[in-house]
């Protein structure tokens, strides 16, 4: 998958930009707060129909304007593809592929596979279980449409059951309807997550070992109520859940323990170790999508070298410079590490400057 051109109007602090990209590496240079991350977020938006920062759509519209438009022109397995997203305030977003609007946005997920690493990923380690479930779901949903559909059905049933609990409803038949749907879909979701992590964890360990030069041992441990039994036992939990006002068991409570040695990473990990852990997760995600999908994912690396020692930076530069990775977009505040990557790759590249939302090309190398 190659993003050959990107057109932006009124997205965050970017008034207008029309950029052509190298099929190999593209670098955005600039001080903090100038809009580098916003460019990556626009690319992310075209893959997932939403912002990486999870801002409501209206907050992605440039201040003082009434709309934004992001268009991407791609090469996918020999075919030219155009993706369009347009949003006006107080109106439904329009998302189109080759000028045809999607009936459901979920149908688009996986068409333009993408992996993004950013400073906000720290929430995967420090945040609640919801962050880690979203990570798992995002990876699987990009190559398994059935999984995403099943997950949506489970969440809708969960929402209905929680509404009954909040209303202190006593109609058992209503609970039975939604609990039956939750039971059947939960088993499928749990099995998919379990199979995925069994394949994913060894790849993650390998990347962590390479970046840390095998000086540390990192691991992931999957935790789920369904690991204790085949069913959720929702009916047996109704009385307790009525008191709590929400559903206390289910795959919506799944989690991953992120471990460094025998201890949780969030408790003992240094800033550099946490950063290494997160980058290893994202590179493993990329590797998994590359193997499972029908096209090479795009890799977005937002300010990934901060808080890392020279040896870890060296290992990351070596990894992303290999021909295993396809098109890469990187942001940084200086050229030191970017020049190293460009030197290692020795192929096409573009370097852009970003200043207060204005994007200009500084230099590039073409065939």
Keywords:
alpha/beta; single chain; six-stranded mixed β-sheet; 367 residues
**What is the overall pLDDT average?**
92
Q: What's the SSE pattern?
A: EEEHEEEEEHHHHEHEEHHEHEHEE
- Helix content range: 25-40%
Into which percentage range does the β-strand content fall? Answer: 15-25%
Radius of gyration: 22 Å
Number of helices: 10
Biggest sheet descriptor: 6 strands, antiparallel
The shape, in one word, is globular
Number of strands: 15
**Unreliable spans:** none
Derived structural class: alpha/beta
Strand order within the widest beta sheet: 2-1-4-5-6-7
Amino-to-carboxy terminus distance: 19 Å
Set down the secondary structure blueprint:
Layout: E1 2-11, E2 14-20, E3 25-29, H1 36-48, E4 67-76, E5 79-88, E6 94-97, E7 100-101, E8 114-117, H2 123-126, H3 129-141, H4 145-166, H5 172-211, E9 218-223, H6 238-244, E10 255-260, E11 263-264, H7 265-268, H8 271-292, E12 298-302, H9 310-320, E13 328-332, H10 336-345, E14 349-355, E15 358-365
Parallel strand pairs: 3-13, 3-14, 8-12, 12-13
Antiparallel strand pairs: 1-2, 1-4, 4-5, 5-6, 6-7, 9-10, 10-11, 14-15
Helix pairs in contact: 4-5, 5-8, 9-10
């Amino acid at each position: 998958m190659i993003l050959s051109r990107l057109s932006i109007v009124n997205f965050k602090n970017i008034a207008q930009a029309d950029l052509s990209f190298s099929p190999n590496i593209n670098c955005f240079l600039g001080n903090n707060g100038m809009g580098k991350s916003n460019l990556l977020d626009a690319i992310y938006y075209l893959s997932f129909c939403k912002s990486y920062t999870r801002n409501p759509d209206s907050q992605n519209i440039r201040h003082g304007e009434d709309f934004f438009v992001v268009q991407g022109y791609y090469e996918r397995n020999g075919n030219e593809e155009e993706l369009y997203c347009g949003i006006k305030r107080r109106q439904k977003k329009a998302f189109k592929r080759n000028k045809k609007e999607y009936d459901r946005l979920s149908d688009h997920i996986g068409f333009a596979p993408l992996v993004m690493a950013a400073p906000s990923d720290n929430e995967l380690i420090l945040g609640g279980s919801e962050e880690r479930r979203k990570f798992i779901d995002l990876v699987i949903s990009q190559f398994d449409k059935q999984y995403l559909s099943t997950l949506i059905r489970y969440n809708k049933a969960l929402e209905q059951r929680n509404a009954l609990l909040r209303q202190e409803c006593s109609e058992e038949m209503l609970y039975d309807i939604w609990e039956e749907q939750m039971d059947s879909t939960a088993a499928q979701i749990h099995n998919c997550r379990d199979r995925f992590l069994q394949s994913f964890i060894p790849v993650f360990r390998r990347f962590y070992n390479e970046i840390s030069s095998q000086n540390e041992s990192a691991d992931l441990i999957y935790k789920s109520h369904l690991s204790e039994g085949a069913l959720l036992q929702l009916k047996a939990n109704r009385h307790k859940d009525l008191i709590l006002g929400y559903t206390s068991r289910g795959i919506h409570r799944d989690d991953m323990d992120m471990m460094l040695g025998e201890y949780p990473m969030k408790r003992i990990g240094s800033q550099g170790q946490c950063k290494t852990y997160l980058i290893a997760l994202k590179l493993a995600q990329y590797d998994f999508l590359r193997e499972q999908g029908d096209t090479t994912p795009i890799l977005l690396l937002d300010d990934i070298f901060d808080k890392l020692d020279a040896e870890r930076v060296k290992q990351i530069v070596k990894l992303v410079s290999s021909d295993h990775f396809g098109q890469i977009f990187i942001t940084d505040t200086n050229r030191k590490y970017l020049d190293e990557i460009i030197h290692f790759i020795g192929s096409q590249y573009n370097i852009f400057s970003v200043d207060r939302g204005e994007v200009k090309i500084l230099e590039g190398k073409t065939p």
